[in-house]
Amino acid sequence: MSDYVFERPEGLPLPTPTEEAQPYFDALKERRLVLQRCRSCAARSYPPRAMCPECGAMDFEWVESKGIGTVYSYVVTHQAVHPALRGHTPFATVEVALDEGPRMTSNLLDVAPDAIEIGLRVIVEFVPIEDQMLPYFRRL
Ligand SMILES: [Zn+2]
Fold first, then answer.
1. Which residues surround ligand 1, an ion (CB under 5 A)?
2. Distance from the CA of 90 to the center of ligand 1, in angstroms?
3. Cα(30)–Cα(33) distance, rounded to whole angstroms?
4. Fewer CB within 10 Å, N- or C-terminus of the chain?
């Protein structure tokens, strides 16, 4: 274990929820991670969208995720690709495969970029930023 702490740089743009994604962001504010489940084929999907990526149906329900998954992939960024990132590189962006199936892009709060491993088990942690709540992950 290291004492690494990821901190989201101030000034980085926040997500703007679409109409389809609003229930997802509302759930985050209650510290719940939800996924869409297609009422036609039962596929769970992320990110929120109007049409099921598996069967094309447009009828969903929201189901809660346990927020536990595995690091599926990651990339370490060394260049400040946004002005707010100056002084905050290198940082890692991870793709987490949730146990329910869908994969989410996020950051690890407690694992340094050079210590991340594919297959690492992680759990969601909700971090309040301005008027939103965003899902990050930490080592399980
Ligand atoms: Zn479907």
1. 38, 40-41, 43, 52, 54-55, 57
2. 38
3. 9
4. N
C-alpha span between 81 and 98 (Å, rounded): 27
* Residue-level pLDDT at 3: 85
**64 vs 114: CA distance, rounded Å:** 32
Ligand 1 center to residue 65 CA distance, Å? 18
pLDDT one-digit tens code per residue, 62-121 = 999 999 999 999 999 999 999 999 999 999 999 999 999 999 999 999 999 999 999 999
- Is residue 39 classed as helix, strand or coil in its secondary structure? coil
For residue 1, what pLDDT is reported? 53
Ligand 1 centre distance from Cα of residue 37 (Å): 8
Helix (H) or strand (E) holding 97: strand 91-98
